[in-house]
Amino acid sequence: MKRFTRCGIIFVIVITMMLFSVLLLQYNSEDFSLSESSFGLAGVARPQATEPNIAPPLNSTSNNLELNDGDTPFSSRHANASIVMLARNSDLEGARKSILQLEARFNHRFQYPYVFLNELEFTEDFKSMVKSVTNATVEFGIIPSDHWNQPDWIDEVQASQARKAMAEDGVKYGGSVAYRNMCRFNSGFFFKHELLQKYRWYWRVEPNVRFHCDINFDPFLYMEDNDKVYSFTIATYEIVETISSLWTSVKSFMSLHPEFVVQNNSMNFLSLTWGRTYNRCHFWSNFEIADMEFWRGPAYSSFFDYLDLKGGFYYERWGDAPVHSIAASLFARSDQIHFFEEIGYQHDDWSHCPLNKEIWEKGNCDCSRDHSFDYDDSSCKKFWDRISH
Ligand SMILES: Nc1nc2c(ncn2[C@@H]2O[C@H](COP(=O)(O)OP(=O)(O)OP(=O)(O)O)[C@@H](O)[C@H]2O)c(=O)[nH]1
Ligand SMILES: [Mg+2]
Fold this sequence. Notes:
Layout: H1 2-28, H2 32-39, E1 81-86, H3 92-110, E2 114-118, H4 124-131, E3 138-142, H5 145-148, H6 156-168, H7 177-188, E4 201-204, E5 210-211, H8 219-225, E6 230-232, E7 235-237, H9 246-256, H10 267-270, E8 281-283, E9 288-291, H11 292-296, H12 298-310, H13 312-315, H14 320-331, E10 337-339, E11 345-347, E12 350-352, H15 357-362, H16 381-387
The chain binds guanosine-5'-triphosphate and magnesium ion (MG).
Magnesium ion binds at residues 206, 286, 347.
């Protein structure tokens, strides 16, 4: 009997200790939902499931997106994104050079898929030679003719007179229909291509561009996590003869649709006269990382259709760079546009090289900071700095 009582006491002590341990564990646990249901703590604030997005310091991306050497991102989070290149078959060597650069500096670790677009079918040679420089998925698409060619309602007499005059004046690509088709396609149609429907984000890459620094973070995720819609590395002035009436059309669109122009826009990047005149500044669109949902949305769709009907893609030579830049500056908040300091980038003779020495060293950049285009006389970066965040 006595032995039975002693056993009972020990049993009660053991059970009590076990219960006490469970209580302690629950108290220390971060899973407040479990505590809440167990102890009836309704109303106690739960901790956030994820860290809040803290704005990264100027000129730097958030460190939590950076990979370390040897990391593979295959198991980690990816954006719904692709790298897009518009190219001709004759651009093969330039296309391969750009991809080799981008793979070495970025995509060999991220494996974002590529989409190549052309108004003509890519040759088998083009396809196989491009595929040979990346392990990522590559798709090749043909552009529908109504997304590429000069529409019927354009008055060809007026258009050809404009081309002739521009060519005589020595305006770059002034006499070219193909260049105008390309600008119109990049302005209003690439994001409608069937191969891009499954993607939200894109990185535009051209043949023969260079990437000067290692990109150890995912720019797409940076954009997504920080509520960005458009990004750039170089900003410059448009050739005045190519956009004679563009700003007049922009102003009439704004009067018709004031609802699309957001508060905290970047009008101060575009105009030094509170919108009366256009300073010709634009983000250089041969580099773009942006959100196609923005181009597909009501403000831009309506804006592009309006401009298209004005005919300026053919009667003048409106470029996709000013068209995109004006739209992003007016229909997105200025804090939704991002300057990628870390992405050393070169197109033709102009390059953006990170001016910040720490960023330059961290990226193993092979560009000269002294020759960065950022504060060249032809750069518009100074206007962006006045409003950037
Ligand atoms: N498929 C196709 N692609 C084109 C055509 N014209 C230009 N492109 C592509 O469109 C993009 C822009 O063309 P570019 O000729 O580089 O125009 P740009 O950058 O304004 O001028 P550059 O200073 O000469 O580089 C590049 O990706 C070209 O490969 C064309 O007629 N057909
Ligand atoms: Mg180019």
